Amino acid sequence: MSMGKNTLLSGFEKFVIKNPEGCWGWSGCIPKNPRYGQFRHNMKLERAHRASWIIHFGEIPTGMFVLHKCDNSICSNPDHLFLGNNYDNNKDAYLKGRNKILWAYGEKNPRAKFTNQQIKEIKNFEFHFRWQRQLKRD
Ligand SMILES: [Zn+2]
Predict the structure, then answer these.
(1) Whole-model pTM?
(2) 73 CA distance to ligand 1 centroid (A)?
């Protein structure tokens, strides 16, 4: 276990760009989709934010996902990461997609194609998400 951790650490340290002020960067491979920092570890690809979690906090429990508080999928700053279940993961992905869509949406945008029901759903998600974040902070 400790051997694996050392290898994970050295692989991670090789590419991570630690920014004391905020999000951490990645100088290694970053595929387009999903946009996560990656490196090779024990013959397979490991994601930077997952490696960071394991290095700083320990093993990721089965069925749990390492998610970003900072909406920066490349970031591996352990202070910006949190564990979530599959529901959180889906919601997170949904909201990140939604951020892009909502940004383009609006009465000012003639290409907006949302129904009132969809907008209501989006706003519900937003509220729920903020509320959950608030709980985590307290
Ligand atoms: Zn970050």
Answers:
(1) 0.65
(2) 8
